[in-house]
Structures are given as C-alpha cells and as structure tokens.
Amino acid sequence: QELRPKSLDIKQEELGDMVEKEMASTSEAIEDAVRRIEEMMSQARNESSGVKLEVNERILNSCTDLMKAIRLLVTTSTNLQKEIVESGRGAATTQEFYAKNSRWTEGLISASKAVGWGATQLVESADRVVLHTGKYEELIVCSHEIAASTAQLVAASKVKAEKSSRNLARLQECSRNVNEMAANVVASTKSGQEQIEEKDTMDFSGMSLIKLKKEEMETQVKVLELEKRLEGERVRLGELRKQHYVLAGGCDDAPEDGEAKPAPAPRRGILKKPPIAQKP
What we know:
Layout: H1 15-47, H2 50-88, H3 94-100, H4 102-130, H5 136-158, H6 166-202, H7 209-248
Region (Disordered): 250-280
Keywords: Coiled coil, Cytoplasm
GO cellular component, one term: clathrin-coated vesicle
C-alpha cells in the first residue's frame, strides 16, 4: 500500500466521476477557446488593416480550425471510453471498472488535462500576437504541445480499445486531422511573421521628408560601418590563411615573425630518421 503511486489525491471510487468531469472541462475549455478566437477576429477587423489584418485573420482562422478538430477528437474519445467501459466492466459498475483500472484512468485524466491546457495556452498566445505584445514563436510551440497532448490522449484511449472498434478508427482519423491543423497553424504563423517583419522594415509611407532624410543618413552610416567591418574581417581571413599555409608547410615551430628555427641536434645514443626535405 505504501509503494503505490500517489499521483491523485482522490479515492479510487471517485476516479470515474473525475474522468467525466475532466472530459467535460476539456470540452468547455475548447468551446471557450473558439468563442475567444471569434472575439479576437472581430477586434482585429476593427483595429487593424492591410497586411496586419490579413496576417491576423489567417492565423486566427487556422487556430479556429485547430480548435474544431480538437473538439471533435475529444467527443470521439469520450464515445470510445464509454464503449470500453461498457464492454469491459461486465457485472461491475462504471465506478468499479475505473477503480479496477486506475492506472489507465489516471492516464486518461492526465491526457485530457493536457489537451485542455494546450488549447487555453494557444488562445492566450494568439491573443498576444494579435495585440503585438507576444511572440510568434509562442504559437508555434503551443501547436506542437497540442499535437503531443492529443497523441497522448489517443494512446491512453487506445490501450483498452478493440482493434475493430469504429470509434477507435474515428479517433485515429481525428488525431491525424489535429496534427494537420496544428501544422497549418505553424505554417500560417511563420508566413505571417515574415510578412510583418518585411513590411515593418520597408514601409516608409508614413514618414515625413525630414524623417526620411534622417533614416537615409543613418542607413548610410550603417553601410559604411559594415563595409569597414567587412574589410577588417577579410584582412583577418587573409592572415589566418597565411598562417595556415605556414603550418601546413611543416614549419610547426615557426615563431610569430615567420623565421624558422633550426632543428635541434639529436641526442647521442638516439637514432632518428633524417628530416625530409620540404618541397618549395
């Protein structure tokens, strides 16, 4: 009893209720995520335009598609769990089945929590990106986390499912769809980031004549600095190559001034091969 893992501070007879509560909580978190994305979409249309609006809409649309795919996966997973319980409990109650298979039940609870948490984090990251207070990389990481957590949920559900189960086949199809939608979020985020960075770098439409002239002078200074630095690096590269040629020519003991030292005379009693003449 002492060696049993204490991963959950609840009684085993409460595991069944815990599973249902977690799956319901996950579904609620996903529904809330979809609503928040719709609100962000409306806000983005009111507060942005041009390239930024296009980028925000593309990212939020991909996030919406991902949330819908996750919602379908959670629903299918719930149906599969009910099927597993009905086919495996026999004369036992649902609570007794979950208690008897506590490890499997805990895995379902953990996977469900991970999916709900990933969906929430994705929406928060998308919100910060739309408001220009977050990083695009956060969205990419959240997409990877969601793909990993859905794979965990599928694996936990698959353990006790019959191979011929239709719900299992649907769940695996839903998992592939989630991975595809997560990849779309990553792709839209990367392309949007490139568009925004390019626009911010090359958009001079809102500058006055004086501001343009100042930017032009500052850019000229940077160009001269980079050219000077480039010339210095070329000189350094030449010296490195020159020293490399000296060492490759066999003058291992050559001093820094380039003059070779005479080879030390061999000690009496020790026979050595005569030095090989170096080619010019």
